[in-house]
């Protein structure tokens, strides 16, 4: 399991349960994710997610999501992080023209 080595839970503030409850209540216990045409997801919110990655636990950086949208967002962020860590492709030096041009 990928989360087996994560310290994410330890980095949450001591009042996380209260923050989570406030976010779920604020968002009406409904997922706030929207489709491309702006329609809000109708699934119940089961997770509270950080909008911007990191440890900013302010209410304006937290959102209620259904488990499907949360997993999709987390997977996208993981792929982006892996891509950023990947070594840039090496390019061969351009060969000079044999005629010296």
Characterization of this structure:
- Residues 74-83 have a biased composition (Basic and acidic residues).
- Helices cover 34% and strands 8% of the residues.
- It is mainly alpha-helical and 101 residues long.
- Strands 1-2 form a two-stranded antiparallel ribbon.
- It is elongated and about 75 Å long.
- The model has no long low-confidence stretch (mean pLDDT 88).
Separation, N- and C-terminal Cα atoms: 57 Å
Which blocks of ≥5 consecutive residues have pLDDT under 50? none
Q: Record the strand order, biggest sheet.
A: 1-2
The proportion of residues in beta strands is 5-15%
The chain-level structural class is mainly alpha
Described by strand count, sense and barrel closure, the largest sheet is:
2 strands, antiparallel
Q: Number of domains in the coordinates?
A: 1
Radius of gyration: 21 Å
Number-wise, the strands total 2
- What is the helix tally? 3
What's the helical proportion of residues? Answer: 25-40%
Averaging pLDDT over every residue, what do you get?
Answer: 88
The rough form would be described as elongated
Following the backbone from N to C, one meets helices and strands in this order, namely HHEEH
Task: Map the helices and strands.
Elements: H1 8-11, H2 16-26, E1 47-50, E2 62-65, H3 67-85
Antiparallel strand pairs: 1-2
Features:
two-stranded antiparallel ribbon, 3 helices, elongated, mainly alpha, 34% helix, HNH_nuc, 101 residues
Short description:
This protein is mainly alpha-helical and 101 residues long. It is built from three helices and two strands. InterPro entries: HNH_nuc.
